[in-house]
Specification:
The protein is α/β, with parallel strands linked by helices. The protein is built from 14 helices and six strands. The chain has two domains: 237 residues, P-loop containing nucleotide triphosphate hydrolases (Rossmann fold); 61 residues, Histone, subunit A (Orthogonal Bundle). Helix 11 crosses helix 12. Its EC number is 2.5.1.75. InterPro entries: Dimethylallyltransferase (IPR039657), IPT (IPR018022), P-loop_NTPase (IPR027417).
Length: 310
């Protein structure tokens, strides 16, 4: 089973309730929560929740290390087999669409890329306006231009990086995708949340992160030698707070950009879920009580399980 949805939609709470009802264990499906020392800015699941339900796939990498969708797919298959082998139910939980896609579609093996050249290129691109990056994508990978331009700076940057540093476009690499495993045939659960409610929850989350010590967390990472050009810290929150600590903006400006960037990310997630998920994905109305949501998901899982076994 996979439980997904836009940021702040309530995936953690629902997944804990479902996992406890099904004797399940959770596999993190979030591209940021794989990084060590990045707890507040990624809203990583709390120690209390980890005590209630075993979690897998957290804290796997340092912030300067890569973690691709392909690697997630391999790790997730291992966790799924190991959890299932003990008679428990694996639940994939998170909002990173490409991680979910790695389990349902063939993926390509990421070519080796020189880290120093990559970081230099990322530093250069960080100073370029979005319109210029979009022109680069159009010139380097016309087949991916529309998809990349619908996304954020990371998607644009990724398309440019692969084309310049491997000599082949990302579209070409995707066309070479293969898989030695059958696509997963499970239940995909999508949490639906009103956009205005998402915006309110995002604003509240950013305020909470600041109160819980996000600035101190980012400062500690910078002191260890990590920076916004590193894979783990290139995401929303760490990038803006690093700019504040570097004197490039006020704290209020940094938090304002965090809110704006997170709202845009949530909208991109909604678009991705609308176009990329299968027609039989189960949509959950999050305006209902948590108990009602969990009961519906548990019932749907048991029905799906019977159809697979049969």
């Amino acid at each position: 089973m996979a439980i997904t949805g836009p940021t702040t939609s309530g995936k953690t709470q629902l997944s804990i309730a479902v996992a406890e009802a099904l004797d399940g264990e959770i596999i993190c499906m979030d591209s940021r929560q794989v990084y060590r020392g990045m707890d507040i800015g990624t809203d990583k699941v709390s120690p209390e929740h980890r005590h209630r339900v075993p979690h897998h796939g957290l804290d796997l990498r340092n912030p300067d290390e890569f973690y691709s969708a392909g690697q997630f797919g391999r790790d997730a298959h291992y966790y799924i087999e190991e959890i299932s082998g003990r008679g428990r139910v694996p639940l994939l939980v998170g909002g990173t669409g490409l991680f979910l896609r790695s389990l349902t579609h063939p993926i390509f093996k990421q070519p080796d890329i020189d880290v120093a050249r990559l970081q230099a290129l990322r530093g250069f691109m960080a100073k370029r306006p979005r319109a210029e990056l979009e022109r680069w994508v159009g010139a380097l990978d016309s087949g991916r231009a529309e998809f990349a331009q619908e996304g954020g700076p990371q998607r644009l940057g990724r398309t440019i990086e692969v084309a310049l540093l491997t000599g082949r476009s990302l579209s070409w690499w995707h066309s070479q995708g293969t898989s030695d495993r059958e696509p997963l045939n499970g239940l995909i659960v999508v949490l639906d949340k009103d956009r205005e409610e998402l915006d309110r929850r995002i604003d509240a989350r950013v305020t909470r992160m600041a109160a819980e010590g996000l600035v101190e967390e980012v400062s500690g990472l910078l002191e260890k030698g990590y920076g916004p050009e590193d894979p783990g810290m290139s995401g929303t929150g760490y990038r803006e707070v690093a700019a504040y600590l570097g004197g490039d903006m006020t704290l209020e400006e940094a938090l304002g950009q965090m809110r704006s960037q997170t709202r845009q990310y949530a909208r991109r997630q909604l678009t991705w879920f609308r176009h990329q998920l299968p027609d039989d994905a189960m949509h959950v109305d999050t305006s209902r009580s948590l108990d009602a949501q969990a009961a519906d998901v548990v019932a749907a899982w048991k029905t799906k399980e019977r159809s697979i076994d049969g």
